[in-house]
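quick one, two chains, predict together pls
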Amino acid sequence: MIGARAAGNRRRSQHGEGDEQQMTATTTSESDVQPTAGTVAALREVLDGRWPQVRAAVRERIETALHPPTADLSSEAHREQVLGQLHELAASGMQRLGFETRWGGTDDIGGSVTSFSMLGFSDLSLLVKAGVQWGLFGGAIQALGTEQHHERYLRPAMDLDLLGCFAMTETGHGSDVQSIRTTATYDVGTGELVVHTPDREARKDYIGNAARDGRLAVVFAQLATGGEGHGVHAVLVPIRDENGDPAPGVTIEDCGRKAGLNGVDNGRLTFDSVRVPREALLDRYGSVAEDGTYSSPIENDSRRFFTMLGTLVRGRVSIAGGGITATELALTIALRYAERRRQFARPGSDEEVVLLDYLAHQRRLLPALATTYALHLAQDELVGLLHDVQSDPEPDDARQRELEGHAAGLKAAATWHATATIQTCREACGGAGYLWENQLPALKADTDVFTTFEGDNTVLLQLLAKTLLTRYRDHFGDLDTLGTVRFVADQVVEAVIERTSARAVLQRLASARRGPDSDLRDRAWHVQLFEDRERHVLETLARRLRAAAGEDGDPFEAFNAAQDHLLRAARVHVDRLVLDAFVSAVDRCEDPRAAALLDQVCDLHVLSTIEQDLDWFTGHGRLTPARAKAVTRAVNDLCRELRPHASTLVDALAVPDAAVTAAFLRD
Amino acid sequence: MIGARAAGNRRRSQHGEGDEQQMTATTTSESDVQPTAGTVAALREVLDGRWPQVRAAVRERIETALHPPTADLSSEAHREQVLGQLHELAASGMQRLGFETRWGGTDDIGGSVTSFSMLGFSDLSLLVKAGVQWGLFGGAIQALGTEQHHERYLRPAMDLDLLGCFAMTETGHGSDVQSIRTTATYDVGTGELVVHTPDREARKDYIGNAARDGRLAVVFAQLATGGEGHGVHAVLVPIRDENGDPAPGVTIEDCGRKAGLNGVDNGRLTFDSVRVPREALLDRYGSVAEDGTYSSPIENDSRRFFTMLGTLVRGRVSIAGGGITATELALTIALRYAERRRQFARPGSDEEVVLLDYLAHQRRLLPALATTYALHLAQDELVGLLHDVQSDPEPDDARQRELEGHAAGLKAAATWHATATIQTCREACGGAGYLWENQLPALKADTDVFTTFEGDNTVLLQLLAKTLLTRYRDHFGDLDTLGTVRFVADQVVEAVIERTSARAVLQRLASARRGPDSDLRDRAWHVQLFEDRERHVLETLARRLRAAAGEDGDPFEAFNAAQDHLLRAARVHVDRLVLDAFVSAVDRCEDPRAAALLDQVCDLHVLSTIEQDLDWFTGHGRLTPARAKAVTRAVNDLCRELRPHASTLVDALAVPDAAVTAAFLRD
């Protein structure tokens, strides 16, 4: 049962516990399967990606300064603690990474997002509070404002001399923010903008920093001048005075207790015809002259709005990263517990079995760990893309759209994975996992909202799917030609499956031409299988929508009837992106032992992903029933093989020791 | 596309929005699909099952007295509130249902479990606290003690003059309670039992009522007399004195904050050679004479232990019910929100779309609602079985085992469903669902532990699977004969698929002989499909274990390698039990409109359950790929058909108005 494989240049046998041979035919000795510090370091190097020094700095900070909240902290005390930690962060200069050098920043976008995400090891409330202050509030001023705003506000925002809010969501409009109803009407008589909340549904809701600390808000509102509307724009509105009392005309409510993130002061803002000077408009994408004349570099209201939103993609990328960070912490806790906890004696023995030696327990935790590796590596690639796109002095529309699509898809995948995995970790630790002192309750509660804020996951996947359909239409025009196109599958794949970058390893794998009987662990087969599924789902979706449109029915009903298909198209697209990232990372890893281990982790990720969608693969003739059963067996085999390496894989995640406070891991 | 069906005596067309015809061939008019108060009442009658008067009484009590906790209540204040509510309950006499009439009870076991479960509409902490006091503490004294214990303790326990604990779980042993290490050693010199905690792993952990209120504990310990061990027994040990201070030799710790259920005071108990009189032993299943002679009606230590555990099955059944209650409340909230919340305008219209009109939103909530109906009805049947078995003056071992198996399986299914569905409800309400004021955070956090307490779900399913295997072996003896047995499938089905009761409707459906091309909504086909799957999974499991055993390998490894198969066998068994219950309930419903609607709900439950396991059905030749796709389409169709009836189905759940406090449902 030794199978050769073409992926990379490694061979290995497929069976046997913890088998991990590389390039040689020698027998694996006991010592070969022992984790070495070198393997951990090599894996960590891969996981640390492009910003290892930033990661090291945040880890150091967490070890020394930023401690998680204790149990039974009241919301008020928790808010106080988080604000204190925010000041510590500000003193460290971490926030400067995200700002331009001319305003005192260090202009390292990727480093900035990486460091924000890693705050999830400390307290997710701190991550969110920092994200609100510097990412959303400061970020909006930088991205949507012009020099006068930058000059006046960026330094105090960075230094926390000015705390602010990002007031976009309203009670009545969260996903559909283009339809918000707050108004900003220019009064030509006084040269002021009048910011107003017409009714309860239009109040700003869930706004971080609003209930307690914020002084100035970036308020998104429908701009009108001379009786004419210009769509959504952002206006700076003071919400509190020097004493912290609400500014005149501003009503502030506290959202009160939430499931988690109670260290963040979310609130509601209502504006009763609040007047601000014309200069308060963040006017990079639209400005109002003194006489009320409106001008913008982007003609179309809707296009302008989405351009404005597009500049704010960093927040979404940071949340994806924060979700992954929290998942890594949860898995570190659950796997370490699973390695020390014993229950039920072996038959005929007094020795009790370690939890992680049970297949069912491996099944719960190891595929989740493998997919966490995959998402971590995909996230790293996304952060790189964000950095490159936003650092580019020449904006590139196509790459910006690609970035937004990847960010939407990965945010959805990573945060749903976080929710599911942290839940599994809690359950895998039994009653002990329910105690606050063992950290999992806070991780679960804090990350729960990640799936629905910074873009609701379901809505994000639909946006992504629509982008994919648009790209598809751009390539193929009239979808009637699909019947023909199917026969030139290679061309379709190349056109539809746009890659982040043309990477040699993926090109080689994609062109290796695997048949349906390929080795189950053949990476070329995996890559082709995922591409093939993506293409098929998208093609059939396009055809279906085309057919529905041809029937002259209600376009909403036609789209709605295909909504599950639409979401599926986005999901399988993300699966393929994530696999691409994992394959590339394995290829980059130079330490042979670490690379071989990573390769097995990738196998487990791929095969357990296939297993979750087996009915599609068998139903569409991609896997025979016998081969489908073999997939399940292979996942079991991989769990057994990786079991001895679980602690190596956990150590490589490099969660700071100070972040792992769980009482049940103490001796 | 009109399909006749044999299930029940109803016919209906299969397509069209909200189509719901009964027995007549007349066209469905608009008014036919409008919910009527009569339909709601008829559905409610089915759901209220055997104890409608108990349900009505608890609803009334919740409307008038038992209010859920407010936000930001400290753990201490929450504990105080729940204790107060416990006293209100005691005054109402609800707890008397669970006790024998001779001690002041009213001896209505099913009514008792039903009423406990419904406390989930109020505050799940109250449900758990009541369950600890009366179900576990009082219940153990009643079930494991003898007359002297009943006489002395049951009235004060009922009246809350004596608050108590059920101290079984230890830090080191939760699932494997037979291996607990607390000792109870008889000292013949003084006639006392010495209760002792040998080390930290042996301390009693997560014990409800221990941290604050309990005075007396039922302590499970390894009993030894004259140097000989007799296995686990229960001993009454005072843990606090009259002033509430820890009793001499008893150390009490507080488990502190938990993810939820913070109105319950869980604690840890350590005993330092605490002496109690010999009479403190709950001696129904084992007694110690003054000279230290041990005697028991059950010879075997292990058998005795499991008999003792078996008497305590009520707690497990109550938790399954509590999970369902919480799920019903969560779905009521999420579905009512989905009917009033709008987001995104229809293309070419200013009208915004109601969330529940989106297929994706229907997909998230309606199959979950259908399965909640299914579990509710299965739970009702389980409660009936519990009542009948425990009310029977002649104990029947086979029925007791059946009861324990059903309780284990349904507890796992219902609590996992609760966790997943409440999570979905939270996400379906977006950021609003994350606010405490909208109830979902507390429901989520409180029910989270249900999957791992009163028996860890994974462990329970394994126990159930082992019971099924034992029953299988009892029928077929040598498993080598399986090759032959497969050709007499009917006999196998009859023997393996033991029914709770021989119900005419199921017998008729099971014998109706449906082919692979049956109408997708043919109930006879559903019943046969689920039975066939159960039989196949169990047969192949038995064969696999037999083969592994034949290889003379390590029995633990053989069993462990099949662990996923084992869990699956239990799951598909539970699926079949749940379907049986649903089918019977539809058959009982006499109102034709309600019956037709319930029938559609059953279709959605069945087809979405099949959809979740499509790879099995296609992989094992039970569904062709084309038919598998038709299943997905049928689920979509059913979502659309049931959409107009969502509020009827929610109203029929009859959640008390006072229990629905969510701020976003207020006008």
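The CA atoms of residues 78 and 263 of chain A lie 5 Å apart.
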